[in-house]
Specification:
This protein is of the alpha/beta class. It contains 6 helices and 18 strands. The chain has 2 domains: 173 residues, FAD/NAD(P)-binding domain, CATH 3.50.50.60; 92 residues, 3-Layer(bba) Sandwich (FAD/NAD(P)-binding domain). The protein binds flavin-adenine dinucleotide. Flavin-adenine dinucleotide binds next to helix 1 and helix 6.
């Protein structure tokens, strides 16, 4: 029996502590501190009379998990798939697990492009696995510049007739898949006729005609990952019950990615509940 936790912040580490101490083989995937990187000083968390820096708290959490035997892997999870078991996918590896805890923090925002929000669900999607099929044989654009964007683009290229990467002024941070067009211009707006988008207009006045746009800005956000396996989301938040279980058996979520109070204390509490619920779930399998 093993558990994979996506996220090494307070929620992910807290879940890991309960799993590993119950004898479960536990791995955390982390890309470094999430929200804690921006928290200069935390004065309202239990046990630190002088306050503690966010980076320091992150490092202490990772060290504590490691000391109890949790494996820490510094890789971004780009997708989750149903294979023989549920499997987390990184750029180079596949990691099957009997239970998962999403603890990826608050989802990143989409770039502030006019029309993007308005056309969500009308040609603008945040999930290649969920919506790519609607664009088979058509022209799609991915807005992004990171490894996650390349991963979404690669998935869509199997379906779409033409694919273009729009980096909105950023330089690509990973190799653009062969066969995809690249346009690095800054986007002014997206627009369409009635209920469907059809045009991306750049700041220099030029246009690109597209049938669908997939937003993959920054790293793979919690809601985007959860949607890939059919976990219910509400906006950017993953929906759980009081046991921190999602609607997908064996998949739990904790911390900022579930919304509510975005504080360390609540993330640690959610992680503890998710970890103990995952232990109960795993024991019910054996
Ligand atoms: C400026 C600022 C100040 C704050 N001050 C306070 C404060 O004073 N007191 C307080 O209680 N709270 C404060 N907070 C909030 C607090 O930092 C968060 O509520 C808390 O860190 C949430 O914990 P989390 O584990 O849910 O997410 P995070 O701490 O955001 O951790 C998310 C983890 O997921 C990893 N991750 C994300 N995506 C992936 C992926 N695809 N693959 C692998 N890993 C991934 C990240 O690398 C990170 O390790 C502050 C936040 C900010 C931004």
């Amino acid at each position: 029996m093993n558990a994979v936790i996506i996220g090494g912040g307070p929620a992910g580490v807290s879940a890991a502590l309960y799993l590993v101490r119950a004898g479960i083989d536990t791995t955390i995937f982390t890309m470094g501190p999430g929200a804690l990187a921006k928290a200069h000083k935390i004065e309202n968390y239990y046990g630190f009379p002088e306050g503690i820096g966010g980076q320091e708290l992150y490092e202490a959490g990772i060290a504590q998990a490691k000391s109890l035997g949790v494996k820490i892997v510094g890789e971004e999870i780009l997708g989750i798939a149903f294979e023989e078991k549920l499997t987390a996918l990184s750029k180079t590896g596949r990691y099957p697990a009997d239970a998962f805890v999403f603890a990826t923090g608050a989802s990143r925002l989409a770039p502030p492009i006019e029309g993007l929000k308005e056309f969500e669900g009308k040609g603008v999607s945040y999930c290649a696995t969920c919506d790519g099929y609607f664009y088979r044989g058509r022209k799609i654009a991915v807005i992004g510049y990171t490894e996650y964007a390349m991963s979404e683009l690669t998935e869509l290229m199997h379906l779409a007739a033409e694919s273009v990467l729009l980096t909105n002024g950023q330089l690509p941070e990973a190799e653009v898949p062969a066969g995809a067009f690249l346009n690095t211009k800054k986007i002014a707006r997206i627009s369409g006729e009635g209920r469907n988008i059809d045009t991306v207009t750049f700041e220099d006045g030029t246009e690109e005609k597209v049938d669908g746009i997939f937003v993959a800005w920054g790293s793979a956000g919690s809601a985007a990952l959860a949607k890939k396996i059919g976990a219910v989301t509400d906006g950017n938040n993953i929906v759980t019950d009081e046991e921190m279980a999602t609607n997908v058996p064996g998949v739990f979520a904790a911390g900022d990615c579930c919304g509510g109070l975005l504080q360390v204390a609540k993330a640690v509490r959610d992680g503890a509940v998710a970890g103990t619920s995952a232990v109960k779930y795993l024991r019910s399998l054996s």
